[in-house]
């Protein structure tokens, strides 16, 4: 339900029905404690000058499909009436449980929605962060994309470790209270957030347990229109060295004990006000430690001259947007415990 005010909050309308949520699939006390036990309901408004200006959007996790799934409805008239609720991610597999959504509308009227999702886990015991966007006022959504580069396990060691909350010696004796992060907030808490910046990018913040303990992670997400109707006579710039226009960012590192390999997840971040189109490639210009070798370079080389193709880190986008950042790609290196290199980045300037 919503109420409306047309006099800056002095008076309000009678309650207006937005939708009747279905809570039939939510987990009770006998289910996994970190899966959704309640609905998360959120509103957002389009304050842009787009064709969908002043639309109000409502989202929540709903069970009408038989599982917890993020749905959206919108109002074109300030909340007087609402569209039929529809799934944000209609292509989600039946095994996916979706919960803890967030919503924001950017300066261009693009609607961004984020949530936590179990689809990467066959047993439903791991969670990833996902995002989808609508460029037509909520009428349809682009394919959902995975934002997190690794899954989180809520029941990981760090989250299950007890933490001292209270230890007192008083008149009635000794009292103590210890609990874990999992016991306190099994799903990481309910403060996931999504906001848009002045350039139209979305900033997603979520609770992530990939390290073994709940931590706050964030990612900037860009929704970039794809160029259409390119003719054979179009002039296409050739790839060139753009190292001075970008930087490499180390997302995180790990060590694979079974394969005895170092793992580095690396992103490309733009430092330029101009976009860069595919192909986007990192090439190593020096690799001074002969005792360690790359094992998964795109061109198969193991040191100097090795390349990583970052087109796949752009997913379905055709370019790296101004000041944007790619998804991280995994670099693997086996051997000694020291990794040192010099690299350059090449790409194709585009308008």
The average pLDDT is 87
C-alpha end-to-end distance: 45 Å
Given helix and strand content, the structural type is mainly beta
At CATH level 2, the architecture of the largest domain is 6 Propeller
Morphology call: globular
Radius of gyration: 24 Å
Our count of helices gives 2
Under CATH, the topology of the largest domain can be stated as: Neuraminidase
Number of domains: 2
Strand content: 35-45%
Number of β-strand runs: 22
Q: What is the CATH class of the largest domain? A: Mainly Beta
Largest sheet: 5 strands, antiparallel
Low-confidence stretches: 227-236
The amount of helix comes to under 10%
Could you give the order of the helices and strands?
Answer: EEEEEEEEHEEHEEEEEEEEEEEE
Topology:
Layout: E1 42-45, E2 56-62, E3 69-75, E4 86-87, E5 98-105, E6 111-117, E7 128-134, E8 145-146, H1 157-160, E9 162-170, E10 173-180, H2 181-184, E11 193-196, E12 202-208, E13 215-221, E14 240-241, E15 246-256, E16 261-270, E17 276-286, E18 292-294, E19 307-309, E20 319-320, E21 329-335, E22 342-349
Antiparallel strand pairs: 1-2, 2-3, 3-4, 5-6, 6-7, 7-8, 9-10, 11-12, 12-13, 14-22, 15-16, 16-21, 17-19, 17-20, 17-22, 18-21
